[in-house]
Design goal:
Oligomer: heterodimer
Distance between the termini of chain A: 37 Å
Strand content of chain B: over 45%
Structural class of chain A: mainly beta
Number of strands of chain A: 11
Shape of chain A: globular
Largest sheet of chain A: 7 strands, mixed
Radius of gyration of chain B: 14 Å
Structural class of chain B: mainly beta
Number of helices of chain B: 0
Number of helices of chain A: 0
Largest interface: A-B, 23 and 23 residues
Chain lengths: ~120, ~110
Amino acid sequence: KAGVTQTPRYLIKTRGQQVTLSCSPISGHRSVSWYQQTPGQGLQFLFEYFSETQRNKGNFPGRFSGRQFSNSRSEMNVSTLELGDSALYLCASSSQTSGGAIDTQYFGPGTRLTVL
Amino acid sequence: AQSVAQPEDQVNVAEGNPLTVKCTYSVSGNPYLFWYVQYPNRGLQFLLKYITGDNLVKGSYGFEAEFNKSQTSFHLKKPSALVSDSALYFCAVRDVRRDDKIIFGKGTRLHILP
């Protein structure tokens, strides 16, 4: 099976711009989560989608948004970029356990966003 | 609130020696516990998980972890370290009875010295 893919791998934007990142999960996985990784804050949870519905959300401002399509692919959008948004954005996909909980997450290589 | 702590920012181990990377957690219910590894400029790779059953969990690349409920710990171990084990290791916890969010520790950088 192909792994989680993320596009683009690298992005350079300027303050005030907006950006859209894309994630294609492992085939058959219906859950997609997004994380922001920075040296200072570590891995921070952004949001999780399951079957096109946002299931969980982290503590990020409304400038960060996401969506999931019927084929489970997901996008996240950041509007009005700030310098502090520079980070590695990781996407993870997972299947469900027999009990309905989200199972092991498998991560993509990430998108490195630099805001100038 | 659920939380996970990795008390060591960095661990140095000589090649061939046993290694331990520490993790403690706090959840209100029964935890799902995970270890991930991250190599430079790569995403996280799953190593192992504990959900229920045997307290000793074996995972990829010869790693194992021991779930200790009384000490709320889930330390990662390997009997004999390799230089190629040098990477950033993350412990994560999920409280499936609460909000089902997954919380990651800050990470521990493991240096294996040749």
